[in-house]
Amino acid sequence: MKKILRTAVSGLGRIAWDFHLPQLCAHDGFHPVAVVDPCRERLAEAQARFGVSALYTDFEPMLEELHPDLVVIASPTVFHADQAIWAMRAGCDVFCDKPLALCSAEAEAMFRTARETGRKLMTYQPHRLNGEARAVRAILDSGKLGPLYLIERHLSNYARRNDWQAFRKNGGGMLLNYGSHYIDQLLYLTGSRVERVRCELRRIASLGDADDVVHALITAGSGLLFDLDINQAAALPLPEWRICGQRGAALYQDGEWKLRYFLPGALPEMKADTGLAAAGRRYPSEPIAWQTETLPELPADRDAYYRYCYDYYALDRAPFVKADEILELVRTIDACRRSAEEFRPVLV
């Protein structure tokens, strides 16, 4: 008989409403038994739409009364650590939305509790599985660009953020919010560990006090550079991806990938000129037999994440997001914050 996980969801905001609850209801290995939210109107909406009968405005009474197998934490970031630790100490496994925690100290406490209680803990990092990530994986695996030296990731928009994520006291800001997605995506796709971080944070268009512009240069242990630009005050967007290797580059914009590269051995032999008189007083140049390709965006598999969750929580298989990976991510975000030295000029 198939194992069914009795599941509670804490927090009925955007991510729970648009992803977690629909996915739980669509997968026959999960049975949503409760929802928790301080807003009674949202509880009633969840009951009407998803058929969840147990409604709670407080988290701890739900744990004490229902003892679910799994708790999905989709509450604001500032509550993640406390709720995850409470749930694991109550005998529940935990699936936590990103960002896992406010800082590495909280994340380490959460995984320490998981070890002490024997419970399972994993976090939601969906950009590992979206269409862009699938395309990047295919490009990297092809080896067409040669050894990589730079990956640029640009997220551009103009949005005057005015919700809870605009405020530092709530764990808001683009470094923690979007940075949790895209730093993880870069590290996961390249299998990298972080060696050095330089970062600047700004608050430009947001109506709160948290950063809405992030520029981080992250150096991996292999020497690969990640240039992450998250700009929520940009009137004109930049290309979302630029991947540079020794033999070519890939560019992604408006749903399309463009590749330009040369084949191994295609360049004729050339020797360095150590003299100070450039031949013909010209800059060096040579014809290159470029290969070009245009690739469409690959579709995302929206159902994949909860298949991975079931494998982990019900079948005891390896977690899709491993503890050391998520701790590396949170430590990198901490390093970005330290590098920025909390310098936040305000434009008027």
UniProtKB/TrEMBL annotation:
The keyword Oxidoreductase applies. One of its GO terms (molecular function) is oxidoreductase activity. Residues 6-123 form the Gfo/Idh/MocA-like oxidoreductase N-terminal domain. Gene3D superfamilies: Dihydrodipicolinate Reductase, domain 2, NAD(P)-binding Rossmann-like Domain. Pfam families: GFO_IDH_MocA, GFO_IDH_MocA_C3. Residues 134-249 form the GFO/IDH/MocA-like oxidoreductase domain. Keywords: Oxidoreductase. It comes from the Bacteria. This is Putative dehydrogenase. It comes from Victivallis vadensis.
